[in-house]
């Protein structure tokens, strides 16, 4: 039986791939400025500078758009924690360190652009937003104990980047504002390039240590949680985002997991030992169950939306006409 590679061996063997993928990323990525996506002419002072503080009626965003924007922004705000965790599992030296620094700098633009947009347009309560940011960043992220190591992190961040790309794009579509849509589309493009980087390095992980990599992928897929877990009101907010298609089980299966399994040729590989094959079978069984869960989820959501629409119709019919 082949001996597992140590973390040092994995980092060393994958470093040339990281260097190549970083160079490819730098050749493709286009620079952009957060301030170009903020309608500054809509801004005005708050009470501390003689203006008016935020009030609910100032926001032009729907409830769904507000919740999705806040959730996505707070996710981006947790960057210091992600940087620390990735640096601990990868390296801050050599090609790994170059990538970690570049990735962090690019990710930081996302929270800058989103917060400036929301504050200037008064889309959400800035005081509540700042309170939530303090809570989220102070708490950081707490990954399961078994989620340590370079291969686990590569697999997780690959899935997470693809998922975040979808969440940003869907959020832009429900904002009903071309500026917000353009901003979130631009952010999603960053997330897509990041996903490509991590996906390609994970592919190299499969070629280098197939059994260890399929084990990592299986663990991540079975235990995956979006980084928004644990945020204030995350259960209610997450449910609303699922209900309105910001990010749901169908998207997770069809737009995230299935394309990644195909890119990694998970079910076509012939280089796994019996141990790796056990993990692949475990992964296959989980995905089969997820397929069934998606069907049940969509049926349940359809019933809920139908009841909601029927209730709205009844309420409209029973409204007393206003005499003028």
Question: Would you write up a description of this structure?
Answer:
The structure is a single chain. The protein is an all-alpha fold and 324 residues long. The protein has a single domain (7-318), classed as Orthogonal Bundle (Ribonucleotide Reductase, subunit A). The chain is 71% helix and 0% strand. The chain starts with 6 loop residues before the first helix and ends in a 6-residue tail after the last helix.
Spell out the blueprint of helices and strands.
Layout: H1 7-28, H2 63-77, H3 79-89, H4 94-121, H5 126-139, H6 150-174, H7 178-208, H8 210-223, H9 234-243, H10 249-263, H11 274-318
- The helix-strand sequence is HHHHHHHHHHH
What CATH first level would be assigned?
Mainly Alpha
Number of helices: 11
What portion of the residues fall into strands of 2 or more residues? under 5%
CATH architecture: Orthogonal Bundle
Number of domains: 1
- Reported by name, the CATH topology is Ribonucleotide Reductase, subunit A
- What structural category arises from helix and sheet content? mainly alpha
CATH superfamily: Ribonucleotide Reductase, subunit A
How many strand elements? 0
Termini gap:
86 Å
- Regions with little confidence, pLDDT below 50 for 5+ residues: none
Largest sheet: none
Shape: globular
What is the residue-averaged pLDDT?
Answer: 91
**Chain oligomer state:** single chain
Q: What is the helix content? A: over 70%
Organism: Mycobacterium talmoniae
GO biological process, one term: fatty acid biosynthetic process
Enzyme class: oxidoreductase
Keywords: Coiled coil, Fatty acid biosynthesis, Fatty acid metabolism, Iron, Lipid biosynthesis, Lipid metabolism, Metal-binding, Oxidoreductase
């Amino acid at each position: 039986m082949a001996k597992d590679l140590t973390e040092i061996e994995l980092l060393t063997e994958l470093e040339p791939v990281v260097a190549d993928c970083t160079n490819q990323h730098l050749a493709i990525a286009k620079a952009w400025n957060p301030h170009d996506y903020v309608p500054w002419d809509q801004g005005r002072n708050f009470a501390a500078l003689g203006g008016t503080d935020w009030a609910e009626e100032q926001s032009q965003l729907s409830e769904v758009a507000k919740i999705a924007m806040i959730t996505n922004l707070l996710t981006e705000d947790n960057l210091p924690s992600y940087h620390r965790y990735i640096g601990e599992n990868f390296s801050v030296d050599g090609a790994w360190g170059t990538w970690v620094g570049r990735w962090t700098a690019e990710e930081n633009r996302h929270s800058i652009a989103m917060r400036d947009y929301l504050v200037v347009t008064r889309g959400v309560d800035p005081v509540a937003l700042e309170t939530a940011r303090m809570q989220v960043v102070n708490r950081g992220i707490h990954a399961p104990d078994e989620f340590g190591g370079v291969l686990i992190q590569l697999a997780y961040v690959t899935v997470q980047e693809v998922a975040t790309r979808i969440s940003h794009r869907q959020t832009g579509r429900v904002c009903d504002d071309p500026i917000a849509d353009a901003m979130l589309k631009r952010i999603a493009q960053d997330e897509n390039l990041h996903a490509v980087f991590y996906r390609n390095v994970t592919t190299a992980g499969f070629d280098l240590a197939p059994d260890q990599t399929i084990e990592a992928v299986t663990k991540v897929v079975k235990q995956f949680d979006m980084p928004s877990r644990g945020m204030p009101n995350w259960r209610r907010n997450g449910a609303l985002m699922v209900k309105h298609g910001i990010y749901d089980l169908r998207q997770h299966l069809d737009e995230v997991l299935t394309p990644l399994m195909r890119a990694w040729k998970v079910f076509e590989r012939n280089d796994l030992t019996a141990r790796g094959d056990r993990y692949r079978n475990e992964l296959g069984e989980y995905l089969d169950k997820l397929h069934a869960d998606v069907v049940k989820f969509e049926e349940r959501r359809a019933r809920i939306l139908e009841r909601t629409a029927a209730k709205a119709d009844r309420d409209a019919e029973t409204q007393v006409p206003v005499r003028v």
